[in-house]
Amino acid sequence: EKDIISGLPLKDKTVLITAGPTYEAIDPVRFIGNHSSGKMGFEIAKAAANLGAKVILISGPTNQTVNHSLITVLPVVSAQQMYDAAHLHFKNVDIAILSAAVADYKPKNVATQKIKKKDSTLTLELEKTKDILASLGQIKTTQFLVGFALETNNELEHAILKLKKKNLDLIVLNSLNDKGAGFKSDTNKVTLINKEEEATVYQLKSKTEVAKDLFNTIINTLNA
Ligand code: CTP
Ligand code: CA
């Protein structure tokens, strides 16, 4: 209670955050990636640090930068590297928020030399990456685990399924329906859904404000 009043409710907490895209190598010069900017994850990291938390920010390739004494950035490239970094630190954290846009599939074989242009079509065989969030859901003990969901149809139903399947405490449903929400933008429209399947719909707002709303909910839940 004292720390809430002093404005540092996360003072003795460590928060792990994943952010940005992952890049999955095809050959030495090419990869499969996505347009995630990393903005949401970096805003979550800053919000956590501003609340007094120690932050481990595992980030895929982005242009985002942050300079805060409480934030350690661990840069990674691939889903496997993000998985390894997350598992290395998970047992020592209180809260984990997985906002990264992790590639769902990666090339099954990575060519050691640049693939030469040849036939009129080229087929790449892909295999699933490991689901970092689901794997943490399976091993979590006291950690408060937060995931994201990006859906285009039956949003609420799909998000609740993810919450249950991955054993989460909270899921952030990202709505693509509104202009100005999503990957490249500075704003987001989210719905937060807790373990009891209670959904709270938020207005379109800056990612900075979305991060604050997220920690309000987390702190209220932890203190309940
Ligand atoms: N996630 C993860 N590791 C993966 C894939 C996803 O940690 N290999 C995490 C994301 O960071 C996000 C959540 O899982 O917090 C949901 O990601 P999303 O892409 O919405 O769902 P998926 O489970 O990958 O299912 P689908 O893409 O088929 O909807
Ligand atoms: Ca996915």
Written overview of the protein:
By secondary structure, the protein is an alpha/beta fold. The mean pLDDT is 94. The N and C termini lie close together (12 Å). Helix 2 crosses helix 6. An eight-stranded mixed beta sheet has the order 5-4-1-6-9-10-12-13, with helices on both faces. It has a single domain, classed as CoaB-like (Rossmann fold, 3-Layer(aba) Sandwich), CATH 3.40.50.10300. Bound molecules: cytidine-5'-triphosphate and calcium ion. Its cofactor is FMN; Mg(2+). This is Coenzyme A biosynthesis bifunctional protein CoaBC. It catalyses: N-[(R)-4-phosphopantothenoyl]-L-cysteine + H(+) = (R)-4'-phosphopantetheine + CO2; (R)-4'-phosphopantothenate + L-cysteine + CTP = N-[(R)-4-phosphopantothenoyl]-L-cysteine + CMP + diphosphate + H(+).
Write the layout of secondary structure elements.
Layout: H1 2-6, E1 14-19, E2 24-27, E3 30-32, H2 39-50, E4 54-59, E5 71-75, H3 79-90, E6 95-98, E7 105-107, E8 126-128, H4 132-139, E9 144-151, H5 155-165, E10 170-175, E11 187-188, E12 190-194, E13 199-201, E14 205-206, H6 207-223
Parallel strand pairs: 1-4, 1-6, 4-5, 6-9, 9-10
Antiparallel strand pairs: 2-3, 7-8, 10-12, 11-14, 12-13
Helix pairs in contact: 2-6
This protein binds cytidine-5'-triphosphate and calcium ion.
